[in-house]
Amino acid sequence: MPDTNDDAIPPNLASLHAGEEFLRGKAIGLVAGDGRLRLHLAITEAAMDLADVLRQFETADEDLKVIQLLGMRTFNAFGASVKLALSGYGQNSALILRDVLETVFLIDYFAGDRTLIERWRFADKKRFAMYEMFSELAGHPTMKSAFMMRPQRDGDAVIGPFMETTTLEAVVSEMGRLAIQVGEQLNLFFPADWPQGLPSRLAFAKLKQRWVATFYPSPSPAAPKSDEPGGA
């Protein structure tokens, strides 16, 4: 009986996958040489871990079950977004991050008052502006979305995946910012007396502190002038 496995994937798709894997290797090399990218991916992993741990808490609270499901949604979205970003599909990675953005807005809304689930569709204008950015760059077919299909800013759009430092940095940095928000919101729903969740919460808190110190450092106090008390 003939082996049909060789024909399971059309040759062009197999070739495309090989190209994606090559680009993934290139992307990993770029990440390895950039501590800021590694930190963004580390905080993304930590937020995903919080979602995975929270889903394991057994509860009869229907409101908490909703949060668990939303956390699982962010886990899957982050996983897909990372895979796409490292495989050269920056625009599609950003499109999935828009889903994370919508989800974390919803979790944030619930965090203030769990009785507001039925009013989830409301959001303020600042959030709409962020949503609009993801829509323009990735979610909808606009002229601005073509920017993410160009390996060079002033070059032509290309078909298929490509790896370019600026695009990778842009997508991964936005991923890190969203991961901070997701982790912060999910952390609010962990039962305070559930010890199994503590290691993941502490790991996220430690990485968050490092992330904030790296990307939003506190300004150093100005040195005293020579004519002021204590000056040289």
UniProtKB/TrEMBL annotation:
This is Uncharacterized protein. It comes from Zavarzinia compransoris.
